[in-house]
Each structure stands twice: as structure tokens, then as C-alpha cells.
Amino acid sequence: GDSVTQMEGPVTLSEEAFLTINCTYTATGYPSLFWYVQYPGEGLQLLLKATKADDKGSNKGFEATYRKETTSFHLEKGSVQVSDSAVYFCALHNDYKLSFGAGTTVTVRA
Amino acid sequence: NAGVTQTPKFQVLKTGQSMTLQCAQDMNHEYMSWYRQDPGMGLRLIHYSVGAGITDQGEVPNGYNVSRSTTEDFPLRLLSAAPSQTSVYFCASLAGVTGELFFGEGSRLTVL
User: Which residues of B touch A73 (CB under 8 A)?
Assistant: First the structure.
């Protein structure tokens, strides 16, 4: 079945550092790919998405490109802020089947 | 626009007690689902529904029941709570066209 694997955390960074969270997937067909973010004490919310190969999703300075050849959807941000401290989930949607990665906890220190 | 509303936010139960977590959405989404979130295990699907009158099991359905009598509501019932059901529960509805999930704020359940 479909699955998502993302890098384990936790990840601790200083403000203005570069952030990468790796995500790879296994799926049949043509899934849509998502990154969700969960801030402390809150539910998950959509950060960005890509619905087909080579699409780039972007939001709040974060970017991820749907790479079908490497089955990857890595999340990047060039300069993180303390407010980016959260848990990040990579997810896949394929014909109403949804799969989530285990989540990566990111802490940004001032 | 309320989105997805879950209640209660916090609940403490004793082993063997029953309770219902409520979930309502006002976006007219056909697909709704319940997840539990445990440390190091990400989100695991408990039950889901693709429309009123239709429900199905997810990855971890044991100990939970659901029903879907209306498009808006999708309650999750714990029939006889066990300590292993201590978790944070999230209800979510799916915007079918975009594939985006809309989550509630979560319900933290502790079973003693």
C-alpha cells in the first residue's frame, strides 16, 4: 500500500538557518502530496501542496517540489524564525486514501 | 466559517467508561475521518466515512465505533475505555477536489 517516510527529528536550529525535512513516498498512480504543520496545542493545518509531478508548492517561505523520478517531496526554508517551531507532517492523498509520515519536530532557537 | 469543530477538548475517563467525541463540519464535505496521534507514531486512521450512511474502518478501529447520519456530523464512540486509548484525537474532513484535509483542534483523552 501507499506509504510516506520522513526524516526523524527532532531538529533544532538557530534563527535564520536553512531547514530541510526529507520526505519520500511509495504509491501507485498519481498521488497529491502535502505538507501539514502543527503548532503547539493546535490541530494540523495545510502548509503547502503539489498535485502533479514537477509542481512546486510554496507558502510562508517554505517550498517543496514534487519529484516523481525520486518519489520525493522535501520541505525547505531558507531562513527559519522562532515562529516556525512546530511539528511538520508529509502526507499523500491517492484516490481518497491518505497516508501520513510520522512527523518531524522542529525547534528554532533565537 | 467554523470549519471542523470537535468537542470536548479535554476528557479524563476511568477504565471501562464510555464516551463520545463529537465532530461537526460546515463545509459540506462528504469525506470525514478520525485519527489518533501518539508520540513517535504520527497520525493513525481510526475510522472514516465517504458520505452519510457510509462508514469504514481505518488502520486502528478496535475499541471505537462511528456513525454518519448526516453530512455534518461524525461522532466517535469509545464503548469501554482502556488506558491504551489515551491519546490525542483529531477529526478531519476532506475537500474532495483539492485533496486538502481540514482538521479540528483535537481532543486530548486520558484513560486512567
Answer: none
